[in-house]
Every structure is written in structure tokens, then in C-alpha cells.
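FORM 7B: Structural annotation worksheet

SECTION A. Query
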Amino acid sequence: MAKDESVNDLTTHGLTAPDLSPIQPNRWLRPLLVFGLLLLILAAIFGDIITTGGGRLYVAQRFQTFVTIFLGIFIEAVPFLLLGSIVSGLLAVFVDQSMLDRYLPRRALPAAFSGAALGLLFPVCECGVVPVTRRLYEKGLPMSMGVAFLLAAPVINPIVMVSTYAAFGWSAVLWGRIGFSFAVAAIIGLIFHVAHPREVLLPAVHQVHAHACDHHSPAPRQPLWGRFQQALTTAGDDFLDMARYLIMGSLLAATMQTVIPQT
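SECTION B. Predicted structure
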């Protein structure tokens, strides 16, 4: 009470009260500290070999290998991420809650098996399946079905099955990959059925998910060309959102393959 009266006295006499709000930490401080620590570790590891002539040649060769591996992983994964983002944009615009209620089961066991079966249809990678699943959750997709689809799609999608067949033919490897991947995805989907969506989904996605489950009134439709433009805009946003994770994963994989000996 005394502090409030002193602040009021300052304002009545034309003085500015001091800012008593807590100081917000710099959001860039932690990443900069982590980056600086990594630089110190690299300097400690490679300091001796960099200072010698042979060490410089070794580092140059390793860096060239790193760039080659990174570009190979990134360029190989980008088309699948783009395809998943386009599918996500189309789902966001052209699919509503009534369609999911009409064609997809709501009970846990059929939903988990249906989610794993959907993985056989969508040719998306680990990055591309994330925006697709997020859009389906925003439409009210059951939790068990989404988790099963998230796990099954990167492993048993058509492109992976064709490549597995090209390598092993109609052998036990192909059928074992399909069977075990399908079973694991369905079982984990059933486990996640007992979790509340609020405990698993991000707050923004959970709010849209709850709204989709409670409201079934269709939104006013735009012209077809306008809906396609909206779908492409949404796909672009999803692509840029997921590309940063693809870049970080490619950097990590390229670093491990470059630094860790292969033998």
C-alpha cells in the first residue's frame, strides 16, 4: 500500500515512476551460450590438427565430406516434405470434421488400426507426415489414429515398400517390415488413446481440435480457385515451418557421419 501511494505521489507531481516490472532475459542468450560452448569444444578437439599443414588438409577434406552428405540428405528429403506440405494444405481447406466423422472410426481399436493402414497410402517422410497429422488433428482426428498414422506412414508408405521390394524382393524382409511396423504403430496408438489431447497436443492445436470436436457447422465456402490459393499458402507455411527441423536433422546426421568413424 505504501509503495502504491509513493508511485501516485510521483505521478501527481509530474515525475515518472520507476519501472518495477521484472527484467525479461534475452531470448538469444541461451542459444549464444550453447553455440559458444560448441565452438570451444571443437577448438579443443581440433586445435592441434588445424595448426599443422596436414591438419588443414584433413579438415578441408572432412568439411567437403560434410557438405556432400548434408546436401545429399537435404535434397533427397525436400520433395517428400514438399509433398507432405501440399497434402497438409489441401486437408486444411478441402476436408472438414463431417468428412472425418463419415469415413473414419471413433473407437480406439478400429481408429488405431485405421491410422496404421493410412500409412500405406500417403507417400510422406518423417518430416512430411508431421504437418499432415497436425492438420488432421485440427479437424478432430482421434488421438489413437493420429499417433498410429504418424508412426506408420514414414515406414510403410508406397515409396518405401517399392524400394524394399527392389532390394529384397518378395521375401520375409518385406512382409516383416510391413507387419511389424503396422503392429507397433497400432499398439502405440492404442496406448496414446488413454491420454487426454491436452496432455499431448500443443495448446494451439488442442484448441482447434476441441473446437472441431464440438462444432460441426460448415464454414462458408470460397470459390474453387480461391480455395486452391489458400491451400497453397497453407502448404508454403507448413513447408517453411518444417524445413528448419529438416535442416537441423540433416546437419546433425552429416556431422555424425563425418566425425564418427564408419569402421
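SECTION C. Observations
The CA atoms of residues 11 and 42 lie 55 Å apart. Residues 17-24, 204-210 have pLDDT under 50 and may be disordered.

SECTION D. Sign-off
Analyst initials: ____
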